[in-house]
Design brief:
The complex is a heterodimer of chains A (379) and B (670).
Chain A: H1 2-16, H2 22-28, H3 38-51, H4 61-68, E1 72-76, E2 87-92, E3 98-102, E4 112-115, E5 121-130, E6 135-140, E7 164-169, E8 182-194, E9 207-212, E10 225-228, E11 233-237, E12 241-243, E13 248-250, E14 252-255, H5 260-268, E15 296-298, E16 310-313, H6 318-321, E17 329-333, E18 336-337, H7 341-349, E19 356-363, E20 366-373
Helix pairs in contact in A: 1-3
Chain B: H1 2-19, H2 21-47, E1 51-57, E2 62-63, E3 66-67, E4 73-77, E5 83-87, E6 97-101, E7 107-116, E8 121-126, E9 147-152, E10 161-171, H3 172-175, E11 177-180, E12 192-194, E13 200-205, E14 226-230, H4 231-236, H5 238-242, E15 254-256, E16 268-271, H6 276-279, E17 287-291, E18 294-295, H7 299-307, E19 314-321, E20 324-331, E21 346-348, E22 359-364, H8 369-372, E23 380-384, E24 387-388, H9 392-400, E25 407-414, E26 417-424, H10 445-459, E27 466-471, E28 478-483, E29 493-499, H11 507-521, E30 523-529, H12 542-555, E31 558-568, H13 572-581, E32 588-592, E33 610-616, H14 622-634, E34 639-644, H15 654-664
Parallel strand pairs in B: 29-30, 29-31, 31-32, 32-33, 33-34
Antiparallel strand pairs in B: 1-4, 1-6, 2-3, 4-5, 5-8, 6-7, 7-8, 9-10, 9-12, 10-11, 11-14, 12-13, 13-14, 15-16, 17-18, 17-19, 19-20, 21-22, 22-23, 23-24, 23-25, 25-26, 27-28, 28-30
Classes of the chains: A alpha+beta (379), B alpha+beta (670).
Chain lengths: 379, 670
């Protein structure tokens, strides 16, 4: 077991060494040609384990920054008007020069410019994109025979709240020419899900995200990378986004783990765009059911957030049978929090024949749960 | 064998350290990072069972032009039997119902029990037992620079959200809060600021040192400036909150003579009537030397001690009066009887450069206390309550120290003879004088000679008179003004600051209505234009108004006691907001066919403010404005209501302008 850990360390060093500064690489690599017996090697491993209890990656923040910066590029494309930035960030995912970046207006150009951390300039074209994942893959032009340092998207990991992370991006286009991108630090604040469809987030992307407590998502930062402090790839920094639930700007990254199969497919040319599940459905869905279908009526909906109080119950209706009462405040419908009369009309409208309708209502200081079947409807 | 191996191991270690110091450095740095990260996660898991997720239903969607989110927020459990403390910010929407979800996923109906209005906290109660209360960090052990982890439950239902920073300062915002550079925002307001050992240093709240409105400090979200109220302080007042009574600031009932917080001394300007200080026998002019065992010499030190005091708290105070010292233990109160100034019934002569001996009587209110003791125009008031009078401002201040129905001696000079008279002061009259002679500008002729030298200096750049206007550089705002043609710097003018309703600046109409009265009664008109005239005034234009008024005050001879804000119809809310925000600048609030949109603050002796509400008898708002004037008087503000017969909801007619001008011309009454 200990030797296996040592091996991991060794592999890591050798894999990264071409892109390190030479001094660092030399000092970090186990001395070559020094006659180390197996026993000493073993002891060395035991010792380093004793020194670093349960440390699985042997890379400090400084080393990580040195290793990651050459893999991150500055992208220049469309924009520059109406407050839209004409710059963005991306990162290499192959040694041949494939770059992953955010799907945004910056790519609305036939060719985009890519500047590496050492100042080399290339043009690139969009190889493929998956707007639902906010993902685009670029390929550098005229880079045949050149090898680039890269992240393997299949190596992307997930991690828990409180993990220290680093964000790399060309925020506000601060990094000029041959300067590496800017690094910010923070911890994973939360792992949560962005749901674009309810209008809470004005984002084309729906899905899980890492929320960061540092200010990672600035103008031009989207497409940058989020790594753990020991250099493991976590996510791609997303577009600037306002969370309507809290009225705050979000700092978040899209897990690369969830993007890697699409990335590989785009690179290998086998990509087929997934169908947008919302595409078939008309944007304004008719409300199929109303509270009256269950035998209750709501109070008049007068303000933006009228609380969902029940006004009256029809005699001998389903609502009467399960014991709903006037003045009950509906709090949940099938586990969805109901914050207003309008939200209640929407939630009931979405029910389908054969569903169960489960209501949690507040009566005084009690929460009461009732359940009733959704009646069949003649079309 | 074992021994040999150990020896080799030690040698190997030395070799490693000796040959590759970089590696040794790296391993320590890396180890530290790893250990710290583990400590953060550990602290979060320790505190997690004491944090609840809060959801609200119904309620407002904005407060003071501030859009409220309706997402989940956080609270901290403070007792096993279901008490939860949270940030009041989370309940600004006044929700119809509050729901609490505990760490094990149990949903409970919650009731808001009481608010701590000093520290912006709200106590909730749920029916539950066996909850895990947060463990408080001992306050003295909190050190600047130590790790501080902010934990909330708003982002994800299943696990807490985290931000890591350090303690940036303690005893911030006048002793109330811990400051941190962890990212504090609506996603963790109401949550906990945690030490690495998982104990709770404080409850996260938005706060601002400059402002105490409920949304103050939110603009600093995620900026690296965040605040937490020490949990130890919260627990100390928990029993009082559990009674269901809101906690307010603890008041002693005094203010300082000096306005310089850091440079001034601690001399008391006024002890408020019937306050704890008053009842303990302290007097105007006493010098505070000690508070709660702390020697004090500057007002700021006193504010630090008082800032975190709650009504009911004790305060040990010692003062010096001449050579005598006096001390007392005060029980602070949440509310003082409203400040009420007595009224003598005199308008003083406007003397920019006074003779230094008393103040002339310009006019006497009929049936007023002054009329009853026979005061007449051209009398000079030379003494009031044993104080020699040198200026009108000083006389106004002295008279305001006497309450209605109290007696005071007035010494007047009439025909070169002094007389001492005893007056019983009355209330400020609600009605305007029916006739009010204008203050003759030539009456200052004796002063004019003295001002002549000043005038000569100013002659080179004589301020503009008549009607003129200006765009404001670097801003979309603009203003227009009318300065009486007869303007002379030897006289002090009133300033009427006109803020138009949305849609139309009404510049020509206001100018035409006011031109004659402005000339007659010495009023400078200043009309300000919103950046977007169509949509009207925005809250962030308050500074433009303030700065423009201040620049006018510098350019022209204006009486600081007669600066009036004037709004009509839909500019009422902005005008009200301004008057209450800049109490040090505006002395009159004049609303035409518009109601007050905010509850007025407490009437304070240091900020004299008078009101006039005016509208047509056929205006639907008529009864509302009349009631409002009555309620202003009930909290002891001087307030006039003027009803204009047969007028609909529109700008006051000629009679109205006459009444408004009379009101402005009597703002220096005493």
């Amino acid at each position: 077991m200990p030797s296996a850990k040592c091996k991991v360390q060794d592999n890591r060093w050798s894999e990264n060494s071409p892109y390190r500064d030479h001094e660092g690489a030399a000092s970090l690599r186990p001395p070559v040609g020094r006659p180390l017996t197996v026993a000493v090697r073993l002891v060395f491993c035991v010792l380093s384990l004793a020194l670093l209890p349960s440390v699985s990656q042997a890379q400090s923040t400084r080393d990580t920054i040195v290793a990651v910066q050459p893999k991150v590029v500055k992208i220049f494309g469309a924009g520059g008007i109406k407050g839209l930035a004409a710059h963005g960030t991306g990162f290499f995912v192959s040694k041949e020069g494939h770059i992953v970046t955010i799907w945004s207006h910056v790519l609305d150009a036939d060719l985009v410019g890519v500047v590496l951390s050492d100042g080399r300039r290339f043009s690139a074209r969009v190889l493929g994109a998956e707007p639902q994942l906010a993902l685009a893959v670029l390929k550098l032009n005229g880079a045949e025979g050149v090898e680039f340092p890269f992240f393997n998207p299949d190596d992307a990991v997930s991690t828990g709240t409180g993990t220290r992370v680093l964000g790399f991006s060309n925020m506000f286009n601060v990094a000029a020419g041959d300067e590496p991108v800017s690094v910010v630090h923070g911890v994973i604040a939360a792992k949560t899900i962005i749901e674009a469809r309810r209008g809470v987030f004005d984002s084309p992307y729906s899905g899980p995200v890492f929320v960061v407590d540092g200010v990672t998502n600035n103008s031009g930062a989207a497409g940058g990378v989020l790594t753990t402090r020991d250099g493991m790839l976590l996510g791609m920094i997303g577009l600037e986004l306002r969370n309507a639930k809290s009225n705050t700007w979000m700092n978040y990254a899209i897990p690369v783990k969830d993007l890697s199969s699409s990335i590989q497919q785009i690179i290998s040319g086998k990509f087929e765009r997934k169908k947008d599940p919302n595409e078939d459905e008309p944007s304004l869905k008719p409300r199929r059911y109303k509270p009256l279908d269950f035998g209750f009526l709501m109070v008049p909906d007068v303000v933006e957030r009228t609380p969902a109080f029940i006004d009256s119950i029809q005699i001998e209706s389903a609502a009467a049978k399960v014991g709903l009462k006037p003045d009950d405040l509906v709090l949940f419908i099938n586990d969805e929090l109901i914050q207003s009369c309008r939200a209640l009309q929407d939630a009931i409208g979405r029910l389908e024949s054969g569903d169960q309708l489960r209501l949690i209502v507040r009566r005084g200081n009690e929460l009461v749960t009732v359940e009733m079947p959704v009646p069949r409807k003649k079309e | 064998m074992m021994k040999r191996l150990m020896l080799m191991a030690v040698l190997c270690l030395f070799a490693t350290v000796g040959i590759r110091p970089a590696f040794a450095w790296q391993s320590t740095a890396q180890q530290l990072e790893e250990l710290e990260e583990r400590a953060f996660k550990n602290a979060v898991s320790q505190v997690a069972p004491s944090l609840v997720r809060i959801e609200t239903v119904g309620g407002l969607d904005q407060v003071q032009n501030f859009l409220l989110g309706n997402g989940p927020t956080t609270g901290v459990i403070v007792s096993a039997d279901g008490y939860v403390i949270s940030s009041s910010f989370n309940f600004l929407s006044k929700p119809a119902s509050i729901l609490v979800t505990t760490t094990d996923g149990k949903r409970l109906a919650a009731k808001a029990i009481a608010n701590d209005t000093v520290r912006m906290l709200t106590l909730l109660k749920v029916e539950a037992d066996g909850l895990v209360p947060a463990r408080p960090t001992a306050k003295p052990s909190i050190r600047v620079g130590q790790w501080a982890i902010a934990v909330g439950r708003a982002l994800d239902a299943n696990s807490p959200n985290v931000s890591v920073g350090i303690v940036s300062a303690v005893n911030r915002v006048w002793g109330k809060a811990i400051q941190t550079d962890a990212k504090i925002s609506p996603v963790n307001y109401g949550g906990a600021l945690v030490d690495v050992d998982g104990s709770v240093m404080g409850v996260l709240v938005p706060l601002s040192p400059q402002d105490n409105s409920p949304v103050a400090g939110v603009e600093w979200y995620d900026s690296g400036i965040g605040f937490a109220i020490p949990l130890a302080d919260v627990l100390a007042t928990l029993d009082r909150l559990k009674q269901g009574k809101d906690l307010r600031s603890g008041l002693a009932g005094f203010n300082f003579a000096s306005t310089d917080l850091y440079g001034g001394d601690t001399k008391i300007d006024r002890v408020r009537y019937d306050s704890p200080m008053y009842r303990a026998g302290f007097k105007d002019g006493d010098l505070i030397v000690e508070l709660d065992g702390l020697k004090v010499t500057r007002p700021a030190q006193i504010r630090h001690v008082l800032g975190s005091k709650i009504e009911g708290d004790k305060l040990a105070i010692a003062i010096k009066r001449g050579e005598e010292t006096k001390q007392a233990d005060l029980a602070l109160v949440g509310e003082l009887p409203p400040f009420e100034a007595g009224f003598l019934g005199v308008l003083p002569v406007r003397e920019k450069v006074g003779s230094g001996e008393g103040v002339g009587v310009r006019w006497v209110y009929p049936d007023s206390p002054a009329a009853k003791i026979g005061l007449k125009p051209r009398d000079r008031i030379v003494k009031f309550r044993d104080q020699s009078i040198t200026s009108a401002a000083q006389l106004i201040d002295q008279v305001s120290r006497v309450r209605p129905a109290e007696k005071a001696f007035v010494v007047i000079r009439r025909d070169r003879k002094e007389q001492s008279l005893e007056a019983t002061l009355g209330d400020y009259p609600a009605d305007l004088p029916k006739e009010l002679p204008t203050s003759a500008i030539e009456a200052v002729s004796e002063a004019e000679s003295k001002a002549a030298d000043e005038k000569k200096a100013e002659a080179l750049e004589k301020p503009r008179t008549g009607r003129f206007g200006e765009e404001v550089a670097d801003s979309k705002n603009a203003w227009w003004a009318f300065v009486p043609e007869s303007y002379t710097p030897a006289y002090e003018y009133s300033l009427l600051v006109w803020l138009h309703p949305p849609g139309d600046t009404l510049e020509a109409m206001v100018y035409d209505s006011w031109k004659i009265e402005a000339e007659r009664r010495g009023i400078i008109l200043l009309g300000l234009k919103a950046a977007n005239i169509g949509s009207g005034w925005q809250a962030n234009e308050a500074e433009f108004v303030h700065d423009t008024v201040v620049s006018f005050q510098k350019k022209y001879s204006i009486d600081a006691g007669r600066i009036v804000l004037h709004g009509y119809d839909k500019s009422g809310p902005f005008v009200t907001h301004l008057a209450f925000k800049h109490r040090d600048l505006f002395r009159g609030l004049l609303l035409a066919a518009a109601a007050l949109s905010e509850r007025p603050p407490e009437n304070l002796p240091e900020y004299r403010l008078q009101f006039q509400l005016i509208c047509g008898s056929k205006d639907p708002a008529h009864p509302i404005l009349e009631r409002m004037a009555n309620s202003l008087r009930s909290i002891k503000y001087p307030a006039n209501f003027t009803s204009l017969s047969d007028l609909e909801h529109r700008y006051p007619n000629a009679d109205g302008v006459d009444a408004m001008a009379r009101w402005i011309d009597s703002l220096d009454r005493l």
